[in-house]
Amino acid sequence: MIPIQSAINKVTADALTASEFAAWPQRYVTGLEITEDDQGNPIEPFKVAVDKLLQAEDPQAKFGQFEAASLSNYCDLVGLLLQHLSSISRTPSYYFLVNGGPPPSGEAIISSEAGLVAKVRERMLYFGESWEQVIRLCFAIKGDKRAKEFAMETVWRDPEYRTEAQHIDALLKLQQLNVPEEQLWSDAGYTPSQISTFRAMRKEDAKAAAEIQKLGPKPEQAGPAAGNAPSEAKAARMAHKPPQGNSGNASRKIHEMK
Fold first, then answer.
1. Are 29 and 64 in contact (CB under 8 A)?
2. What confidence tens digit (pLDDT) does each residue in 89-108 have?
3. Region Disordered: which residues (predicted)?
């Protein structure tokens, strides 16, 4: 990317030079006699200003103006170089304000930043180990025993752009995979001190719920009512009662015939 950046710097310098010497309209006049001073130097015939009027008595005199040099060619070339720089560096083009137009939508931002996010995750893998070495060196200078803590891990912020609703929805899906709550809190962006406060608040909530449960009304024990329970004698009579229907009538008639 350095050669492309050098080309951008060169084109920008050319544009500044052109704006200094050729970006103003150049006026001219023909058919006008130029007078000279005592030393033979030409005398400027007009002092051009906003409140000045150009006048020539010679009928052959003509006034005109050359067009100013356009700087748009330099801008187009810089824009083209920026597009190459964006493609090679995997940086979204709207970061450089190239092509103008309306701002991209949420889905377009996620799609255009895919290459940049992949590059950032790659840097996180190697820079994380470097920062761990720095922290161990700091502990060694302080004489802290954590200087030999090789299980240290650098925790990076999520580089991917996501809305809060998308982020929380992804965490809820991870909860269904039995991911621990503290890990979910950490992925949600809460600091370790906030997570420690959450644990203390959860304990206080559990204590308050237990106290409310003790002060509340006792649930009634379910059981059959005394008046509705059939007696043993009634249950025995019901057991010896002949079955209803034709089969019962037939058996009663056979008993009477006997």
1. yes
2. 888 888 887 666 666 776 77
3. 210-258
